[in-house]
Amino acid sequence: MLIIGLTGSIGMGKSTVAKRFAANGIAVCDADAEVHKLYAAGGAAVAPIEAAFPGVTGAEGVERPKLAAALLADPPGFKRLEAIVHPLVFEAERDFLRTEHARGAEMAILEIPLLFEGKGYLQVDVIVVVSAAAHLQRERVLQRPGMTPEKFEQILARQVPDAEKRRRADFVVDTGVTMAETEGEVDRVVAALKGRTGTMFQKWWA
Q: Which of 53, 76, 95, 176 has a beta carbon 3.0–4.6 Å from 132's, enabling a disulfide?
C-alpha cells in the first residue's frame, strides 16, 4: 500500500484537496479531525492537557480559545502540548492505515498539517504539498472566526515556509486557481501514482 502524506501551511486548501482525493476513492485520515476527537469531552488528551495547562478544559473538553491564550503567553508550551498530542494522533493514524491495508487499499492518505515540522515526512512514501499565493493564504486565514493577524503570524512562525515545502514535495497542488483546475491537478497526481508500491507501511505502521 502506498502512503501519501498530504500537507500544506495554514489556509492553503488541504481540506479541498483531500475531498478530491476521497472522490477518487482514496481514504483520508485527517490529523486535525483526530485532534478534535482527542480534545472533546472524554477524549484521551483532555486530562493530560489540563495537567499541563491548568484551567484550559471544561465540561466539553479542551476549550481551544483558553488553550490558544495559554500558548500565546507561553510559546515553549507548544512542545509540551505536542508531546501529549502527537503520540495519540500517531496511534489513530496507525489504526486507520492498518484498516486500509487489511481491506486491500492501493493507496491511503495521511493529511498532516505539520508533516515537515515533525517526523511525518519520514513515514510516508509520497508527499503532496497544497499551496497558493501568500496573499490568498492570508485572506483565507483572517476570515476565520477568532483569527487575528498576531495569531496568524504566530502560526506561520511555527511552520516550515511554503517555498521549502514546495521544494521538498513530490507533487504540488495549486489552490490559487479555479476549483476545476485544482481538481484536475489532484486527478493527475492520482493517475501518476497508480501502480506504485510503497515501503513505509511495513517499516512504520504494520
A: 176
